[in-house]
Write a structure and sequence with these properties.
Length: 640
């Protein structure tokens, strides 16, 4: 609590307008501070108020929040409202239709890839479709606790499929539709899914993606394949929800791990429900007349929390967009904002930087007067992009909420509240309610005041992940072993003199390409699987739009020559193993790699070489310094 300043600074910061403050849920920094203290000192009271909005079949039996964050004291665990029974699908649909009388309210304006391709779905219709599909799943033998893999484009059926799972207590494991067959397979195997829900295909811009072909690489097989439309046609609209314990699993979502093998992040029912509902309401200052649009894909956590669960829990109306910001042209986003009168808009720095390149004219073709709040997520936003977003898109009327969080955190953990927190461009500002951050140095000492180091959290909030599916030990090792007593984010962070937090980026072997995390290890192993490659090392090279691009160094097997054809093959290899997001931007032939005497590749040095920075810092641990000159000589100047 001492980390939150008594007063927000008055200078060199940007404030929300008086109008926004007047009707805001959290109208001032004083109010934020008061509630923050309550949320940390008495979580059961703070979250108890949030829980009152939901339906509970039975009440919780133990502590509101029970946990151990210290590996030296036993197993790591987090439990929220254990013993209570509820159903998240019931809470986001039935409760809205029956108790809150929102049946005729639009849940989603679906906007297809092709302009003019559109569809509106009300809460009542969504509930009907979910019940029908839940019955379909049951008729296929899917039961509570079973895992269901979903590999679908951004269509209403994707939301229907995930909520149908939640309704019957099945655990959805959604795989982003941009992933390759091999990545899909790895995830299905790891979570032991009993069924895969997919689609024939979809258009991304003018490119056709044939999902079904990727999924099985054989045509329709009547022995294993069933058709959604023929099954759902005859299904009943009545489907009693399966009542779940608070700590029953809700979903698994894979995120890159530094060893290369993705981790199945597991979230459970009640804590996740409370947390996504509260963050959505307060961070976007949601009101019932809002039209909200999050441009993320549901295949990522942003879509899970802030397209499906958070907005629906609040009875919000959202835009569900299948397409791209640049198709058919770079005005598409603003055209959609005007078309649906979007008031709260949430996107990623990479999209902002991409559109920024085309200047303000494509933005100004549309009036955007409906906009009230702008959000960003996925990676640190550079102040230039922040300013463009704030000034050009929002015309300085709309606060920008820079929300820092992770697949693991379930929802926003460091973020401004739009009417309460004075903004500093590029800073995720302060913790959300219930979140207690700290900055540690390399030896694990907590730093006070202005400082820079590892960003960690001292105690759980309801929405934090519970385990890595099937591998609790990996969960403990990844997040809790480095600094006993703390959840380690893997991000670096600076705190300024006013107490503001600035995320500085990953400090582990992770890359952030267009807001998507990739581990260097997974790209390296895709490269070395090629018969020509003996060794590979991958680093991030700053990229004006994507944040980072992939710069790959490959050492070839003896007797193999590097050429254009091989380069194309390697690129294709990575795409096929992982997916298009992991496509290498640069590949450099590297007969030798910089290694320490113990054989560890010095990625720090490779990062400098990739950027042509001559000052390599301390290279005294390098086993053979002659490789450096050669690496500089062979640098790639143009992307492949
Ligand atoms: C990593 C988590 C959370 C949904 C999207 C990504 C980076 C995310 C921010 C931000 C600075 C950010 C971090 C984090 N990140 N948001 N506002 N400012 N960095 O989810 O794939 O689990 O990635 O994204 O490095 O650890 P994810």
């Amino acid at each position: 609590i001492k980390m939150i300043p008594d007063k927000a600074p008055g200078e060199e910061v940007l404030h929300a307008s008086g109008d926004l403050k007047k009707q805001a849920h959290i109208p001032s920094f004083e109010k934020y501070k008061e509630l923050y203290i309550r949320s940390v000192e008495s979580p059961e009271e703070f979250w108890g108020d949030v829980a009152e909005d939901f339906f509970w079949k039975t009440k919780y039996t133990g502590k509101f929040l029970d946990y151990n964050f210290d590996v030296t004291k036993g197993d790591i665990f987090v439990k929220c409202m254990e013993g209570a029974t509820t159903n998240i699908c019931y809470n986001v649909l039935d409760r809205n239709v029956h108790e809150r009388k929102l049946g005729d309210k639009v849940a989603f304006y679906w906007e297809g890839n092709e302009p003019g391709d559109e569809k509106t779905v009300t809460y009542r219709e969504l509930l009907q479709q979910v019940c029908k599909f839940a019955n379909v799943l049951k008729s296929q033998g899917v039961k509570k606790g079973d895992r269901v893999s979903i590999y679908m484009p951004m269509v209403v059926e994707l939301v229907v499929a995930m909520l149908a799972c939640a309704r019957i207590g099945a655990v959805h494991a959604i795989v982003f539709a941009g992933f390759s067959a091999e990545s899909l397979c790895e995830r299905i195997m790891d979570s032991q899914c009993c069924i895969l829900i997919t689609a024939d295909g979809f258009y991304r811009g003018d490119k056709l993606i044939s999902l079904k072909l990727i999924a099985d690489e054989v045509p329709w097989n009547p022995e294993v394949d069933l058709c959604w439309h023929s099954l759902i046609g005859g299904a009943s609209e009545e489907c009693e929800p399966v009542w779940c314990d608070s700590e029953d699993p809700l979903f698994i979502l894979y995120t890159s791990g530094s060893t290369g093998k993705p981790k199945g992040v597991l979230h459970t029912v009640s804590g996740y429900m409370l947390y996504t509902a509260a963050t959505f309401k307060l961070v976007f200052d949601y009101h019932s007349d809002d039209v909200y649009w999050c441009t993320a894909d549901i295949g990522w956590i942003t879509g899970h929390s802030y397209i499906t669960y958070g907005p629906l829990a609040n009875g919000a109306t959202s835009v569900l967009f299948e397409g791209l910001p640049t198709y058919p042209d770079v005005s598409r986003m603003w055209e959609i904002v005007d078309k649906y009168h979007v008031s709260k808009f949430y996107t990623a720095p990479t999209a902002i930087r991409l559109l920024m390149k085309y200047g303000s004219e494509p933005v100004q073709k549309y009036n955007r007067t409906s906009l009230k709040i702008l959000g960003t997520v996925g990676e640190p936003i550079n102040p230039e992009a922040w300013q463009w977003y704030y000034s050009v898109v929002g015309e300085k009327r709309c606060p920008v909420v820079d929300t820092f969080w992770q697949t693991e955190t379930g929802g926003h953990v460091m973020t401004p509240l739009p009417a309460a927190t004075p903004m500093k461009p590029g800073s995720a500002t302060f913790p959300f309610f219930g979140v207690v951050p700290a900055i540690l140095n390399e030896s694990g000492e907590e730093l006070e005041g202005p400082s820079e180091g590892y960003l960690v959290f001292k105690q759980p909030w309801p929405g934090v992940m519970r385990t890595v599916y099937g591998n609790h030990e990996r969960f403990e090792t990844t997040y809790f072993k480095k600094f006993p007593g703390f959840y380690v984010t893997g991000d670096g962070c600076r705190r300024d003199k006013d107490g503001y937090y600035w995320i500085t980026g990953r400090i582990d072997d992770m890359l952030n390409v267009s807001g998507h995390l990739l581990s260097t290890a997974e790209v390296e192993s895709a490269l070395v699987e090629h018969e020509a490659v003996a060794e590979a090392a991958v680093v991030g090279r700053p990229h004006p739009v994507k944040g980072e691009s992939l710069y790959c160094f490959v050492t070839l097997n003896d007797g193999i020559n590097y050429n254009q054809k091989l380069e194309v093959e390697l690129k294709k290899q990575v795409r096929e193993k992982i997916g298009a997001i992991a496509t290498p931007d640069y590949i450099q032939n590297a007969p030798g790699l910089p290694k320490t005497r113990s054989g560890k590749i010095m990625r720090r040095v490779l990062r400098k070489i990739a950027c042509n920075e001559q000052d390599l810092g301390d290279v005294s641990t390098l086993a053979d310094s002659s490789v450096i000159e050669q690496l500089f000589e062979n640098r790639c100047c143009t992307a492949v």
